[in-house]
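Work Package 4 report. The design task specified in the project plan requires that, given a folded chain encoded as structure tokens, an amino acid be chosen for each position. We show below one input record used in the internal validation round.
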């Protein structure tokens, strides 16, 4: 049980006894998805927040011109959902899909709130994870506002070096807000 990826992540913030971890794990549903499977369609309710155990997912949105805008990737040990739809119990404006075969643990909002009430350590964990996610988003926005394409690419490859090999270049370009051609020039300049 100590080597479970969810437990390792939780224990980066709070320590759990074996019994507490068993209690926590009982609130999650294991889910398996195939590559290219859409986990959450735009307009659906976001019933779960997913902890990625194995595989790769993304959150994106198609604009009126059909252009794909990628907000987030989610690889092993990352959490992924349409946060607004999940927490507000509203219809999703985003799409969550799988870029690889994926194994995840799904947590409903009801179970998240129950865990936070019944095991205060988990409330601390979720607060810290949410805060860290907000900080990461803030840094990403500031990077977009104040950095050029080369700096954004370098930042991505420094923070997430394994992601570049797992994601099609067209998706990396979308995530960085550049064209595929610009990304090719950036990747050549960075080698």
């Amino acid at each position: 049980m100590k080597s479970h990826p969810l437990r390792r992540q939780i224990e980066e913030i709070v320590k759990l006894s074996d019994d507490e971890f068993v209690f926590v794990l009982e609130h999650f549903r294991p889910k398996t998805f195939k590559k290219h499977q859409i986990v959450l369609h735009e307009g659906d309710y976001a019933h779960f927040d997913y902890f990625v155990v194995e595989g790769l997912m993304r959150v994106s949105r198609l604009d009126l011109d059909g252009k794909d805008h990628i907000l987030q990737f989610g690889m092993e040990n990352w959490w992924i959902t349409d946060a607004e739809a999940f927490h507000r119990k509203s219809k999703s404006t985003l799409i969550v899909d799988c870029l690889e075969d994926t194994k995840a643990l799904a947590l409903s909002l009801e179970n998240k709130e129950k865990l936070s009430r019944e095991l205060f350590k988990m409330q601390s964990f979720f607060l810290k994870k949410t805060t860290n996610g907000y900080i990461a988003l803030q840094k990403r926005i500031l990077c977009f506002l104040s950095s050029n394409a080369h700096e954004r690419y370098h930042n991505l490859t420094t923070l997430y070096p394994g992601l570049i090999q797992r994601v099609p270049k067209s998706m990396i370009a979308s995530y960085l807000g550049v064209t595929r051609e610009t990304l090719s020039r950036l990747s050549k300049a960075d080698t």
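Residues 120-146 form the longest helix (27 residues). Validation will be extended to a larger panel in the next phase.
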